[in-house]
Q: What sequence folds into this?
């Protein structure tokens, strides 16, 4: 035991004064203080020591030679209320009543350790929660360097074969360059947004950007919000995969558009249906006491309907492929057939509607819409040829084929 | 021939207790070449033993034999410090054993 410095100090101020000062320290110290002799027995103890060691009568008891290899050592205290307790022990050589001794300082750290344990538990729990999240999450410091990252974020770097590029200590900018495949505009935009958040100019920054993956492009939402801890300012950055919600939103929009188109088409068909029923029986046919061709001569009408549908199909394909076919001969021939059978406007509309129904059953919405437009034009053209047919026969003074001829046809 | 008999008081199976026991066994294995007895007393399981020996805190190590009894408390990691504290430090023996 070396008490050289203590001996020197005691000599300088006098043994009595030295002891008086030690006594003063003992009486006011909040830590438990023991003076322990070379044999390990307690020479003196302050009230705090009695509290810490849960022992009122310490003087004269054997404490043991206190061993502290470094600055301090943790020792277990007698349990209180069946709860284990812990103390830090510091030891310093001293003189006590002019004799070499050890000054032992005891500070109970049970509550501190418990708080640390709870904090560590909470931190571990939070860590587990963050690692369980699929969202890629990083915390950056005020310089934009990654200070913490969850497992999903780190996994992304590993999948890209560059785990170091997204690791703690790297810049978020470098990580963005990896994520976007070096797409400079996205990298710069993210950097500007992050700077605004870090600088306090923005409370939130959001950016959607694509990430190329082996299975195709994925879309991510970057969301940066400020984070203040201790005296530092940083930001929390979430990179959320929004591919599925984005696709769902697009599909929903397409569904709404499709529904609107279907409603419009249905309304138009219903209107034409009503129109066909309000149009009186063809004058020519009515004069012969006939109804619509589709009722009077369904088999013949089916052939005419197929012809009209084929003409319409050609028109739709011409429009799709931007070609220009001449359908006039076929329509003229069809008008001749209709005229021969005493067909009229209602029969033309029936042909149009029948063709549209076929498209409605077999074609996508866009094709149906094109068919509706083209069919309307064809029906008008056919109507024109039919009018020409009747004019020609009226001028010639001919009334056209008789009913029995029509029946035979 | 048993060269010494020791009694170690610990509190439960805390990391401090486990570390103290591990350190002490290493020290004794080397210093006494296995010729020692070590009794470990858990004050949580045998509080009356701690009371009888007037143990105030742990880890407390008591040299039971050879007499007289000596006790140390605190850090049991430093071999020389522990052996000196127990009064079992033998520089000559250390020199013959070398740094094994």
A:
């Amino acid at each position: 035991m070396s008490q050289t410095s203590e001996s020197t100090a005691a000599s300088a101020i006098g043994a009595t004064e030295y002891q008086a000062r030690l006594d003063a320290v003992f009486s006011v110290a909040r830590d438990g203080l023991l003076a322990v002799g070379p044999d390990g027995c307690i020479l003196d103890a302050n009230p705090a020591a009695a509290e810490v060691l849960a022992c009122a009568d310490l003087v004269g008891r054997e404490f043991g030679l206190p061993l502290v290899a470094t600055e301090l050592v943790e020792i277990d205290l007698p349990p209180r209320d069946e709860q284990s307790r812990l103390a830090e022990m510091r030891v310093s050589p001293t003189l006590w009543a002019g004799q070499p001794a050890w000054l032992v300082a005891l500070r109970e750290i049970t509550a501190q350790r418990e708080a640390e344990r709870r904090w560590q538990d909470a931190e571990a729990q939070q860590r587990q929660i963050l690692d369980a999240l699929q969202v890629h999450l990083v915390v950056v410091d005020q310089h934009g360097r990654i200070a913490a990252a969850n497992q999903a974020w780190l996994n992304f770097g590993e999948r890209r074969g560059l785990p170091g590029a997204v690791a703690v200590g790297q810049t978020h900018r470098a990580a963005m360059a990896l994520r976007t495949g070096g797409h400079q505009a996205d990298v710069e935009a993210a950097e500007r947004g992050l700077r605004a958040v870090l600088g306090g100019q923005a409370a939130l920054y959001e950016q959607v950007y694509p990430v190329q993956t082996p299975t195709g492009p994925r879309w991510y939402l970057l969301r940066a919000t400020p984070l203040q801890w201790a005296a530092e300012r940083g930001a929390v950055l979430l990179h959320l995969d929004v591919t599925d919600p984005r696709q769902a939103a697009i599909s929903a929009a397409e569904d709404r558009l499709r529904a609107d188109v279907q409603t419009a088409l249905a309304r138009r068909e219903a209107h034409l249906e009503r129109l066909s029923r309000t149009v009186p029986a063809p004058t020519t046919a009515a004069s012969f006491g006939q109804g619509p061709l589709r009722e009077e001569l369904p088999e013949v009408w089916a052939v005419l309907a197929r012809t009209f549908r084929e003409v319409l199909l050609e028109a739709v394909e011409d429009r799709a492929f931007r070609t220009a076919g001449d359908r006039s001969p076929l329509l003229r021939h069809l008008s001749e057939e209709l005229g021969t059978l005493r067909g009229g406007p209602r029969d033309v509309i029936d042909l149009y509607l029948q063709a549209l129904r076929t498209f409605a059953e077999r074609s996508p919405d866009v094709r149906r819409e094109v068919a509706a437009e083209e069919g309307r034009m064809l029906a008008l053209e056919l109507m024109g040829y039919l009018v020409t047919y009747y004019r020609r026969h009226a001028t010639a003074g001919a009334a056209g084929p008789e009913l029995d001829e029509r029946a035979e046809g | 021939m048993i060269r010494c008999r020791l009694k170690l008081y610990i509190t439960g199976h805390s990391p401090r207790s486990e570390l103290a026991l591990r350190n002490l066994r290493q020290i004794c294995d080397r210093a006494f070449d296995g010729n020692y007895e070590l009794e470990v007393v858990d004050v949580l399981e045998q509080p009356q033993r701690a009371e009888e020996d007037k143990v105030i805190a742990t880890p407390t190590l008591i040299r039971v034999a050879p007499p007289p009894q000596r006790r140390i408390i605190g850090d049991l990691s430093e071999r020389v410090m522990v052996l000196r504290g127990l009064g079992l430090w033998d520089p000559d023996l250390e020199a013959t054993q070398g740094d094994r």
Notes: The longest helix of chain A spans residues 243-278. Residues 249-408 of chain A form one domain. Chain A has three domains: 4-114, 133-241, 249-408.
